[in-house]
Amino acid sequence: MGAILELTSYASTPAGMIGIIVIGAAAYFAARWVFTD
After folding, report:
1. Which single residue of 4, 5, 11, 35 could bond 16 by disulfide (Cβ 3.0 to 4.6 Å)?
2. pTM of the predicted protein model
């Protein structure tokens, strides 16, 4: 639970928002690649 709170506080910074977008996009493409294979 502490890790989630740490992530949300990190996400409120501009760099954190960019990082979350990048991680989300990477996870999205990884999932698409796995499920289409």
Report:
1. 11
2. 0.56
